[in-house]
Specification:
The protein is of the alpha/beta class and 301 residues long. Helices cover 41% and strands 16% of the residues. The protein has helices at 15-18, 64-73, 100-114, 126-137, 160-179, 184-195, 208-216, 221-226, 234-237, 255-266, 282-285, 287-300; strands at 29-34, 37-44, 49-53, 75-79, 119-124, 142-148, 244-249, 270-275. The protein is globular, with a radius of gyration of 17 Å.
């Protein structure tokens, strides 16, 4: 497994209070059969449909901090991808490999099953890779793309800036690689601390609800670490004629802005925004700020 294309997006119930936003009522969890698997999702509000795709060691709870704000003005839909979440795995219905292609195919099938396309498709980290792949394969299902820090390492350039991005990538993911095959909980803690730029032991300083969600999904980490890399090259992106917003954190390490800017150069309709005072944790550290970026972009497209 090449750790460069593997990352996460994670948040949880309760974290919303840390950001100063009011807690919304508990969501109603729904289910739908997609490609032989049961997918859970939340569907609230009315108006333009906005579909949210979580990342690694996460599930639909990743978007709880912004659910209320989005559902006030739009149709908010958040899904839990195959293999993620808290339910038992039914391997007879989960015979597809764990990788971005499988998840992207499930996202497209989900949009068709709910008959909600085209949607504004939002992805965070690994979920941003899933959203991008789904849009490339099914552009008619996507109105626009909104991506927070996609880990598309295949877009890293040569040169000094590229070298800095690769070094930041190694620093984040090398400790996870060393631990993932023998202690998934330790690997999860290291992953969170690495991508959120926490000091050692920082995982335990998070709210208990957030830690619980991350550890609920720790079992998926070995599957993701063994998955094939996500290879997206510039020539592929040039064919994607959908408005795309790429957001990265002002405090993020060198990896994330390098990939974001490289991706934007390849897309015909790309806008790049920097979210202040956050790193890869932007959608959970400042959910109101990220929701505002989404609202503004959706209003224009």
């Amino acid at each position: 497994m090449n750790f460069r294309s593997t990352c996460l997006a994670c948040a949880s119930f309760g974290v919303i209070a840390l950001a100063g936003a009011p807690l919304a009522a508990d969501p109603v969890i729904k289910k739908v059969e997609v490609n032989g698997a049961t997918m859970t999702y939340v569907d609230e509000g009315a108006g333009e449909p906005i579909l949210f795709v979580h990342g690694a060691v996460s599930d639909l709870r990743a978007w709880e901090p912004i659910r209320g704000e989005i559902a006030d003005e739009h149709r908010f839909i958040a899904i839990t991808l195959r293999y993620f979440g808290t339910g038992d795995w039914d391997w007879s219905n989960n015979d597809k490999p764990f990788n971005v292609a499988t998840h992207a195919d499930d996202v497209a099938a989900f949009i068709k099953a709910l008959d909600v396309g085209p949607v504004h498709l939002v992805g965070w980290s690994y979920g941003a890779n899933v959203a991008t792949t789904a849009a490339l394969a099914n552009p008619d299902l996507v109105q626009s793309l909104i991506l927070f820090e996609p880990p598309l390492s295949s877009l890293i350039k040569e040169g000094e800036a590229g070298d800095a991005a690769r070094e930041a990538e190694r620093k984040m993911f090398r400790p996870v690689t060393a631990a993932v095959n023998h202690d998934v909980k330790k690997a999860t803690r290291l992953l969170i601390e690495g991508v959120f730029q926490m000091p050692p032991g920082g995982f335990e300083n998070q709210p208990q609800e957030l830690q619980a969600m991350q550890l609920d999904n720790a079992r998926t980490l070995p599957l993701q670490w063994r998955a094939s890399d996500t290879v997206v090259i510039c020539e592929m992106l040039r064919s994607l004629d959908r408005p795309t917003l790429i957001v990265y954190g002002a405090e993020s390490n060198a990896y994330w802005p390098h990939v974001a800017l490289a991706m934007a150069e390849c897309l015909p309709q790309a806008d790049v925004r920097v979210q202040p005072n956050v790193n890869h944790d932007g959608p959970v550290r400042d959910p109101g700020g990220f929701a505002a970026l989404i609202d503004d972009f959706v209003a224009k497209h």
